[in-house]
Amino acid sequence: EWRAVPYWLAPHVNRDATTTTTKEMTAVGRACISRWVVEEILDRFFHPALEPSLSSQLKIIEKNLRRFAPHTPTDEDKETLMTKISNWRLSTIDGLQDMLASPEASEFRNALTEDLVKGLTQSLMVNLKEPPPIGLEAGVGGIVELAVGVAANIPLESREVFVEYIMPGTLVNESYMKVEGTLPPLTNPGEKVDDDSTSSDSAEEKGEADRESGKDVPIPSTQQSQQQQLQQLQQQQGKKKGRFGGLMTSSKKPPQGPPPPGNPRGVEVSPPQVPKEERVRFAAFMAVEVRGRSTLVKAPVYI
């Protein structure tokens, strides 16, 4: 039923995935829904039973408490920050009891759920064939209702529950990721599309939060392009050195001394191989953890 692969996943999915019968597009669908739920629901609203603009402002304040906090080099500092944020969240919930218990609370929640169902449906239909699959909106409605229920319970937790969608390019960390191996290998990836409309504030906030958790943060596209240019320049300089350096070394060879100790035959010893760092191709679901405590749900990722 897919017409195209979402732009942010295209470089990590084979070009013919939409025309072949594989599990690749099933995983793509789960990835799209998971990222949307995290960014548009769990990471945007403090509580779904509040007026939406107030709920959004409170969520921004909660994230800013961590974003603008001083550096926490020790476990004690991290624990202090987590306690500070948890206390603020629980105190805020206590101060909002009259709003959460009012008749308008259920109206706000129902209206928000309805808007989110429309938003996720439209987000999926951008890349789906016409007409849309039968029962699409009903299926999306069930997913949104579950996510809204989770969003209503997270602020009530005394622990700091952190939900994250793992973006492509993140270093694999098995403490909160589970590597899956059922997708076809990436042999014919799609083209990368640079989109400046991606929320830089959201990415920065996630990066700050991830650094507090000791997680790897994907390199922004601007930094990637700068690094690629630097690598190309270094390669060009290396080629120049190789051409002229070959002439210099061929004209006069340095005298060969005795082989170094421990290598009596003069056999060249190759340097030890550095293990290759594996990066996430894309994740099919989100990761859920209690900061500083344990991982509740490991994100299924493909490499």
Task: Write up what this structure looks like.
- The chain has 303 residues and is mainly α.
- Helices cover 48% and strands 7% of the residues.
- It has 8 helices and 6 strands, in the order H-H-H-H-H-H-E-E-H-H-E-E-E-E.
- Helix 5 packs across helix 6.
- The radius of gyration is 25 Å and the shape is flat.
How would you sum up this structure in a few lines?
With 303 residues, the protein is mainly alpha-helical. The protein has helices at residues 24-42, 52-67, 75-95, 97-100, 103-125, 136-153, 200-212, 221-251, and strands at residues 161-164, 177-180, 282-283, 287-290, 294-297, 299-302.
Features:
303 residues; mainly alpha; 8 helices; 6 strands; flat
